[in-house]
Amino acid sequence: MNQQVKTLASLLLAGDTEEAWKLVLTEYQDGKTSLQLYEELFTRAMQYIGELWETDDISVADEHLATTTCDYLLSRYAYLLKKRSYFVNNDEKIKRNAMFFCLQDEQHYLGLKMASLVFEERGWETQLHGANLPLEDAIQTAEEAKPEVILLSFTLLYHAEKLSSYVRELEALPHKPAIVVGGRLLPKYDFRKYCSENTKLLSSLSDLDSWIAAEFGHGVKMDVND
């Protein structure tokens, strides 16, 4: 783990939004791409914080403060990109849209938020529903919004059985959205038995970005450091 990750983790735990933002901005100005910031800085800092919580080195309150501070930084970074017009402006008559949420009783949503930003940088409209969305509400929203892609996230192993009902019901929707499953457990376990042959299981944001480019092929991603 590099020093920048540890420093960011400490700032997140302290709730120091301004110093944390200075660190993120410096990394961005030094040429880091969005994917590098998401995967190598934000994600690793939050993983380190999770390890501290698991070993009782920090409290639940500490972890919650770090999460809300990280959420703020991601929103501020997204605003920076939009302000500088680095998000693709998709002027097609029919815009592509995607929906993002965590399974019911899942509370960890930051990875999901970063995934939504990956889509936004490629010109997609996004609906980020965050943590703990019951299946019936997910179905109702998807029927109304008709997203082309629905991305599900879960982080607790014992929720794998719940995943199968979400996938089955959402893939049965009349408009046939692509269902993508993500989360920190995917690199460690094989969840294919809970999904169909059409479900996309993607274990990283880089994999997600590559899949979007290969599957949809439009809305060329811009280099945010040009």
TrEMBL record:
Species assigned in the record: Metabacillus lacus
Official protein name in the record: Cobalamin-binding protein
Coiled coil: none
Annotated ranges, domain B12-binding: 95-226
One of the record's GO molecular function terms: cobalamin binding
Superkingdom to which the source organism belongs: Bacteria
